Q: What sequence folds into this?
C-alpha cells in the first residue's frame, strides 16, 4: 500500500507544480492537504513532500496559501511528531 501512497503524493505534487490551469492546481493542493491529514508518505519520500509544502507556502496565490495553512497542523504532526517518535522508539530499542 505504501508505494501507492507515494505515487499519489508524487502525482499530486506534479499536478500542483505544472498545472494546465489554476483550477487544477488548486484541486491538487486541496488533495495534497487531504492526503497529509489522512496518511503519511514513506520515510524516503517524506523529506521531499515536506520541502514541497515549504516551497508552496511561498506561493502568491492566496487560495493555495489557505490550503497550506489549513493543513499545516496535520503536516506538522504527521511529518515531525511521528518521525520524532519513530526515531525515539528506534533509539530505545537500541538501548534496550
A:
Amino acid at each position: 500500500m505504501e508505494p501507492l501512497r507515494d505515487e499519489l503524493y508524487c502525482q499530486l505534487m506534479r499536478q500542483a507544480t505544472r498545472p494546465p490551469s489554476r483550477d487544477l492546481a488548486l484541486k491538487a493542493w486541496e488533495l495534497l492537504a487531504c492526503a497529509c491529514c489522512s496518511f503519511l508518505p514513506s520515510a524516503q519520500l517524506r523529506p521531499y513532500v515536506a520541502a514541497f509544502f515549504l516551497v508552496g507556502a511561498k506561493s502568491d496565490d492566496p487560495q493555495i496559501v489557505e490550503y497550506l495553512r489549513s493543513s499545516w497542523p496535520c503536516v506538522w504532526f504527521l511529518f515531525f511528531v511521528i518521525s520524532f517518535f519513530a526515531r525515539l522508539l528506534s533509539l530505545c530499542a537500541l538501548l534496550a
Summary: The radius of gyration is 15 Å.
